[in-house]
# Entry
Amino acid sequence: MPCPDSCPWKRIRPGETEYLSNKHLVDVTEVFKVVSTEKKARLIKLGFYVIFFGLVITRLALSVVSAVFADDEDIVAWSTIY
# Structure
């Protein structure tokens, strides 16, 4: 008895139809059309990560400085909150 189209082992995986119809092959000239867009997107992502990293390092440095130069009364006050 043949398997119907709804069998789980007969499902088409993502990208399989493109591969079977030879659409996975890319023309070299079309690759260069996408390079500038990809470059801009990656630079924006890099900028976001650099800004976020700077904020985290600044916050870390400020917390270390405040912990080192804090008075004993401040430490007791913070410990009683919890």
In short: Residues 28-68 form the longest helix (41 residues). The chain is about 65% helix and 0% strand.
